[in-house]
Amino acid sequence: ITGQPSLSVSVDQSRVARYGVAASEVLDFVEAIGGIRVGEVFEGQRVFPLVVRLPSTFREDVAAVSSVRIPTEGGVAVPLASLASVDLSEGSATINREWSRRLIRVQSNVSGRDPASFVNEARAAIDARVALPEGYVLEWGGQFENLERARTRLIIVVPAVLLMVFFLLYFSLKNLRDVVIIYTCIPFAAVGAIFALWWRDIPFSVS
Description:
The chain has 207 residues and is of the alpha+beta class. 45% of the residues lie in helices and 23% in strands. The two termini are 29 Å apart.
């Protein structure tokens, strides 16, 4: 959700009751400031919406909107400011959606460390300090999402490959003892790679 100046009108129930005006009538007048679609105009095959709205002088600023006069039950017209509070605040210019749900993206760049540890630390901090309202869901994406997908695949692929290599060695050597000896070299082979990553200060991660 990105913001832009937005005019907010909040009807005061006690005021409209005092003047004998329905809240819906006040909102209809407010809607008329921007324009109300009342019909359609046909020109051949083309269709144009027919919109009724107040003159532009009532849309220039907050003071002009507040001065719009609304008829009451007693026949006296009172300004909008007497029935509602009119404020200029930051509203929504665009609302992003995904699967029919509103979506707010918060982006950051991670450098000098692996995404997984950063997300775990950020997730713990948010869980400790932020209470999400009902209906809100927090999801982590980007490079971390790719990392999780790769990790899920590796959990399946790596054991399958190791098992396949084991059977290939067994069918080639026909000796279980030799296969086990060769297999014991695999952890030692990884030590050199891990040491090199540590020595170069490169995060040990999957992307």
